[in-house]
Amino acid sequence: MRHSINISTSSKGHARALIVLGIPIIIGQLGTIAQSFADTIMVGRYGTSELAASGFVNNVFNLVIFFLLGFSYSTTPIVGANFGRKQYDDCSRTLKESLFANLLTCFAAMLFMLLIFFNLHHLGQPENLLPLIRPYFLIILSSLPFMSAFNSLKQFSDGVGDTKTPMYIMIIGNMANIIGNYLLIYGFSVPFAGIHVGAMGLNGAGIATLASRVLMAIVLWIIVRKSTRYSLFHPGFKKKMTKRGVIHLSKLGLPISLQLSLESASFNLTAVMMGWLGEQELASHQVICTIGTLCFMFYYGVGAAAAVRISHFRGRGELGEIRRIAFTAYALAIAAGLILTPLIAFNFNALCFAFTSSQDVVMICMTLLLPFCIYQLGDCTQILFANSLRAIEDVKPLMWYAFIAYIIVSVPSSYLFGFTLGLGALGIWFGFPLGLSTAGILFLTRFLRKTRGYAKAT
């Protein structure tokens, strides 16, 4: 791997560099989306109850998954800035500190999820779903340490400009997950070997997810530690972790975690509200959330690429380029949204039927198309400028802005429209455009204020 930074500072130069960095991230996310689609399709074909149960568990776990993912995001700006300064040993030391801090945080999060597990019967979900929810919940819980380790390793790779290696590993892991789903959900036989595995349904999907997360973490660890691709960083792994480094990662990671968790919480609480309406509404929420990730992956890929590039130029002391990079990335993300949203809208009915054969579930999904389309601009804006703020390590305001946007605006709006005004599922989903747009405006305003004097500092 060639360890260098594309130093072109024109808008076209930044756009090319963002595309080079972003495409592997997007493709890796596409693999994750394909796996999520496969999970939803296979489980949905197995049964509507299983689809509803998986939707509930996955939405509940999104809270801790986004928390852990956000915590790992603190690795990228620190590694990226060190890489920009060519301090390769410090990049390696930061990875060790990141793994320690992320795994410690993961175990604390697992204790929190166990509290939820023992109180599942108090969350107002249909009684017939609880026997499906409980074992699947525990299987997904056991996969979190491996997911957390992979997050740290991926953010390190992204920070040093190698977005391709994690992409390949994510694709392999997700393909393994899809194959595991097919074999374990429906069961399989190998007659000549006398092997027969019965259909495991939703639990089979959980085991496949666990196995793929173990595989991805182990493979990326071996590559980072042993491959010549990362030989520049190998001497630095002998450096001891520092308390200061772990604290710095934690101070950056915690606000980002809370910001992402609050955003996720708005979707999770919405899933709970949809469960109050019924099993079909909950299933429809799972379907449309899965479809929504098609747009999200492009926004995230461009935003993550922007964070990497901004951190490199910040490390080089070229602060005047930070705004140019952020707004070039924003233009790319908006262009992706303008292409994808109409494509999804025109094919929405067919997409929904790909996940479920239930006409009633699809009809509910169709009513949610309008708020889904409306919230795309707000989602794009908040993702791009949240990543830009992370890259310059201005993260504390993010959690307060997220609290305002998602807890003060989005969730109460969902309840107001859905139950107080009696609009049902459509009303619940109209909370999302309000919350995401509020977050986007707040993040953009903060970024403009924070970078006002950067051009003079160059």
Write a compact overview of the structure shown.
The chain is mainly α.
Structural summary, described in words:
By secondary structure, the protein is mainly α. The protein is built from 19 helices and 2 strands. A two-stranded antiparallel sheet has the order 1-2. A hairpin with a 4-residue loop joins strand 1 and strand 2. Helix 2 runs antiparallel to helix 9. The longest helix has 38 residues. The mean pLDDT is 87.
Task: Give a quick set of tags describing it.
458 residues, globular, two-stranded antiparallel sheet, mainly alpha, 2 strands
Low-confidence regions: none
Would you tell me the structural class of the helices and strands?
mainly alpha
Instruction: Identify the strand order in the major beta sheet.
Output: 1-2
Q: What's the overall average pLDDT, rounded?
A: 87
Shape: globular
Topology:
Layout: H1 11-46, H2 48-72, H3 75-84, H4 88-117, H5 130-142, H6 144-159, H7 164-186, E1 188-190, E2 195-197, H8 201-226, H9 243-277, H10 279-316, H11 322-346, H12 348-355, H13 359-367, H14 369-374, H15 376-391, H16 396-420, H17 424-429, H18 431-450, H19 454-457
Antiparallel strand pairs: 1-2
